[in-house]
Amino acid sequence: MLKVRVIPTLLWKDFGLVKGVAFDSWRRVGSILPAVKVYNSRDVDELIVVDITASNERNKPDHETVADFSEECFVPLTVGGGITSLEDVLHLLHSGADKVSINTAAFVNPGIIDSVASRFGAQCIVASIDVRYFDDGGYRCFSHSGSQNTGKGAVEWARELVSRGAGEILLTSINRDGTMQGYDLELTERVAKAVNVPVIASGGAGNYQHMIDVVLQAGASAVAAASIFHFTEQTPAGAKQAMKLAGIPIRQNFISLANI
Amino acid sequence: MKVAIINYGMGNLNSVRRSFEEIGADTVIANHPSCLYGVDRIVLPGVGAFAEGMAHLNQGGWVTALNDVVNLQNKPLLGICLGMQMLASKGHEGVETEGLDFISGEVKRIDLIGCNERIPHMGWNEVRYKTKSVMFDSIPDASDFYFVHSYAFVPTNSGNLIATVDYGCELTAIVSSNHVFGCQFHPEKSSKAGRQMLRNFMSYSAC
Hints:
Chain A is of the alpha/beta class. Chain A is built from 10 helices and 12 strands. The mean pLDDT of chain B is 96. Helix content of chain B is 23%, strand content 34%. In chain B, the strands form 2 sheets. In chain B, strands 2-1-3-4-13-12-11-8-9 form a 9-stranded mixed beta sheet. A 4-stranded mixed beta sheet of chain B has the order 6-5-7-10, with helices on one face. Chain B is an alpha/beta fold. Chain B has a single domain, classed as Rossmann fold, CATH 3.40.50.
């Protein structure tokens, strides 16, 4: 049985590790490369690194820097930000990314998902969806780091991405992002029920119970989180311990028998 | 102890190289079959399709060199993912293709072996030991390793089946025959457990 993953998300802006609230008010919290090393030494399940300015500033993904990250990453590495072409994906995979996360480009040219899937396989495409909740009860997808309303409904868009070949959905609630108030359970549940690929819940984790809830109540296959790990004493290992106690199948951190 | 990682044009080798460096191995990327004669250990990595992988190995002259160093000089070989599958006699990915035939068996799509879960099998999953092997030194049974694959190795002799993984059915996780080893998962992406397994491969000795 596959394990439920706990994935630290590292947002990257001008060489700095940053974190914001609701995709705004960015504050610098460190450097990326040392963070990649620390999470690896702590035996995390996977890492997501996103260049949050690439799409807005029309920059290409910085694959040389990604190569530096991958040199220090011994778990699966997902890289996002600024991907607009098959060539971008090829460069990132050659630089050591295991998967790429595509968001804005899929709205501009949905066919990019089909072409990446047929060339490199569904397993390397994480379709990222940033969603804002509206008081009319609707969930709308936003592109360009949450700045442009695409008018697409979250469930409808997730279904389309999967039908085009996305292997996973990274589902982020813009409203909850950085608030540490808990994941948007309703959003996650709606999307997880609508697609047959793993949904990674993102946006809002503030404690271990939030992670347990989004897995057990909303059907997430993985939890992504940033603020909780940057700003509190809580850790990915602690999260997994709590999830295990709640009956969720998690990957145990490795303990060498040589040390016992 | 020198290990050569075969560069035959099937995927990024940096993660594998970095993992061996992390455990202190003297690591070379082998860009030509002649590189295999001067090393102690050989790693055949690879991501992609069986037929394409074998075509690259044949065209690059790797098959003859591998037969020399593995069968005649008895150098330990580790195949990873596609590299593990190509150790088999035959692959059935798209077209039927002859493999390296270091370990008797065939490679089949996992739904044709009885797995009804989503394809590809991707993520962390528990590896269960079938028989004792040097590959498990210091690694507890049912440790998690990182898998990404749609095809699996079905060995002819159960004695070559060293470990399995449960994904709706039992799939081969590790095969071995004497000094030839293959793992379906990616030790280079399996964090500390993966690194321990690479260490075990490096410290393997025939006697």
